[in-house]
Amino acid sequence: MKNLSNYLLDSLVKVKENLSPGLHKFLGSLSSKSEKLTALSRNKIELEKVRLDLKKKYAQLGIYVSNQYELNNATDFSADINYTKMLNELKNSKNLVNRIKEERKKIRGR
Prior knowledge:
By secondary structure, this protein is mainly alpha-helical.
């Protein structure tokens, strides 16, 4: 009976040793995948937030141009400081969208 229990214990120890490296590898892989998924989710939320902000800025620019046309019959905005400021904000927002997209590619590993 003692030999049988020793045999069973030895067998269980061997099974545990064989499973341990695979289990550690699996858990490590699972952990890295979950970190990657979290990073991608954060990036996606940030990207959508910036895109929404960009849409709002385009709408504000359109309203500004429409109002200036109605009030002053303005069609040339090259000397308009507010118009230039709005265009610069749009350009900065577009650049931010592109940077976030590049970060997303890096996270994905492409």
